[in-house]
Amino acid sequence: MSSLGSKRPREEDSNDVSRPRKRPGGAARVSKSETEAVLQRQHQRAEEARQAAATRGVEEVVRQHYNAVPQRGRDWRKTDSRIKGLRSFNNWIKSTIIHKFSPAEAEAEPYPLRVLDIGCGKGGDLGKWQQAPQPLELYVGVDPAEVSIEQARERYKQMASGGGRGGRGRGGYHGGGRPPTFHAEFFAEDAFTYSLGDIPVIRDVGFGPGSRWGPGGGFDVVSMMFCMHYAFENEVKAKGMLANVAGSLRKGGRFIGVIPNSDVIRSAVVAFHAQQAKNKPPDGPSGKAEVSGQRNDEPAGSESPPYIIGDQDSGPPAEPEANASTKDTTHAKHTEGADGSEVVPGVTPAINVLTEPSSEVNGDVEKPKADTASTKDDRLRSSPQRNEKKDDEQPEPEVAEWGNSIYRVRFPGDTPKDGIFRPPYGWKYSFFMEEAVEEVPEYVVPWEAFRAIAEDYNLELQYRKPFAEIWKEEQNHPIFGPLSERMGVRGRDGGPLLVSDEEMEAASFYHAFCFYKI
Ligand SMILES: C[S@@+](CC[C@H](N)C(=O)[O-])C[C@H]1O[C@@H](n2cnc3c(N)ncnc32)[C@H](O)[C@@H]1O
Hints:
RNA binding, single chain, S-adenosyl-L-methionine, 15 helices, 518 residues, mRNA processing, EC 2.1.1.56, RG7MT1
């Protein structure tokens, strides 16, 4: 498997072979120098382990987290889950996006789809693809969490043996019921670091940049549900991810997905800074460096270089991040803009001001580091206690944090005052979602910057919408309306919404998108 960026880490053979213990009393014959040597080796090993843990990549943290998420049965998810409304709603959104963007282009000649699901997890979307309006012939699932991949394989096998539940008549779009009509393969692979062109079935279908002289990829749809934000740790990963997406798609193919909405993040961050300014004593400077869309590694006051797409070291222009309501028209360019202080309608997260150890370096603000997420305990440290300042202590910087009893977002350090994240990579926050995500590091995907970079890969924006708007627009659709009832988003016969306000606020953190490969 070739690497897109770095070299594949080799799995070292474990040297941890237990030796037989010395018999009792044997220690007495070990000399002092031998004991010292053993202690020194132990010390060295402990130090190596500490260093390994400190440098453990974010991908490793994410992989381990998803591997450890228990697989719960559908009955549990439908009855015992505290967030069953949110689960149903998110599944309905995914089904709707899959349905909307995998129709036959030439209705007269429908052909079976080839779908690549990057970050497929435990195969939760297999049933949705089974129920897509256009039949599939091939589904390829890729995810670095090998336990999840095994569970996805098992799920497909169960579907193939007719063991799935639900189906169109019983539970909507996410069960199966009928054996799948398509062939499926699953691979444990990091799709941001390694080229997917090395996976035999993907190579067979077709993989490559493509040009007007030759073919590109052979997939009709690449799907990335709740996954792409992990790629924005750095430029190499984000572009590695895009090279895999674009390399897999045929001309005219679609790239669909859902991710956290940077407009929501920006609104929350801007509101946080506004609150900070209000709390500031009226006289005198705060002494705090202001982060206002300037690269963190530049001296304060220097001008940002012009943004060149694809240039390793350039950030995007002070991006007027798009208003999230792009028109749903094929090939429509995303043109709406919004000023930096806009708050996404209907989504004004409550901001908590917590304190955190300083990330300021020499008056400049250090960009969030790509290290592991802070622990839940860190997160729950109460602000009043930490605000107790002794006279000789420097005031601790405060960090943006918001959420409710279901979800929580928290930046570990400073954030740009205008909510514009430049450069567009590496803006880490920790994310907690009840029953689903335990304090995993995620990265802001600054939308306009991402859209511009995607164009470099011949991916043109076709659709982008926040979840809440999708619900508003599609709830009475002749297909998606009844589907929402079958999936438990609302009661039967146009009954009440079964998603609580807190669940809807958590869902409103996300938006969905579709790009078109030109
Ligand atoms: C929130 S889960 C979503 C799973 C599934 N798409 C869904 O919607 O239910 C995010 C998934 O992204 C996967 N992921 C994280 N880093 C990845 C990478 N480098 N390549 C591919 N998948 C990745 C995780 O392992 C995890 O399964």
